[in-house]
Amino acid sequence: MAGYYIIPPWFFGYDVMFELLFAVVTLVVGIYALRVYRLSQQEQPKFFSIAFLLISISYFAKSVLNFLVIKELNGPASVLLRLNNVTLFNTLGMLFHIVFFISGLALLVYMTFKIKSIKVYFLITITLFLSLIFNEQRGYVFYLLTSVMLIYICSFYIINYIKNKQHRTLLVLLAFVFLLIGHATYIFAETGPLPYAIGHFLEFVAYSLILLNLILVVRKVRK
Amino acid sequence: MNRKRDRLQVIHDILNAIREKNGNVRPTHILYKSNLSHQMMEEYLGELIGKGFIEIHSSKEGKTYSLTQKGFDYLNKYKLITEFVDSFGLT
Fold it and tell me: How far is Cα A137 from Cα A147, in angstroms, rounded to an integer?
């Protein structure tokens, strides 16, 4: 079992839209970072780009498979068949999300190390995957691990902000703080319906701030 | 100004020094314009050749450098690069 969560009835379907939105925002940021990498040939924009593209795939997969879950629940098939398919889609959705999100987030963590040894990245990622493979409560552990990684990324942006005192760096810092609180909230998504919805709202704020930051960059460049 | 910005700025200065002379620039001119030590300049030039920003030409008079299309693109989109790098803390 990849993990499960309790969705509030009023939120059913909205989660799919939120995840699709997160996928689009991270895709746009990833593509823009790729453009910056192609122009500058610097390592940091390359890692940033790949990380955001991986995170985008993770949300796309989750969104599509959650959509299939909804479709299956309203489908004409027998209850048993529908239940089987719902379990399959939910498990697949969570697994794809875990694999791509962990790969992306670990790359962001690696990027903050500022070292030139891709072996370190693979070591981090493999260790994370192993800790998930050999754990029964994958959903719970996944959000616990991402929260720890996000704490690290936030500390990197705090130091960055202290050094540079730029408003836009503060925006990215706030985005990652919201993402951290969102992921920390998901840890409790198996215990009740609210954390799942709150987690999505917090992620929505986080990705809105990242998108806002990108819009400000584009506007300033065009001036 | 952070370290990455300095690095991007140095690359900009080297490429700009070559562009200002309409290509085929001698290393001494780059050394003067970039304000780097000889060793640092050689490292940067090696990196810029490797990344396809500049080309080296050898003749009887010595080595000269010229910009590639990638080098021109870097200079033209320099503001975009630095704004993005600074905004997302890619230092």
Answer: 16
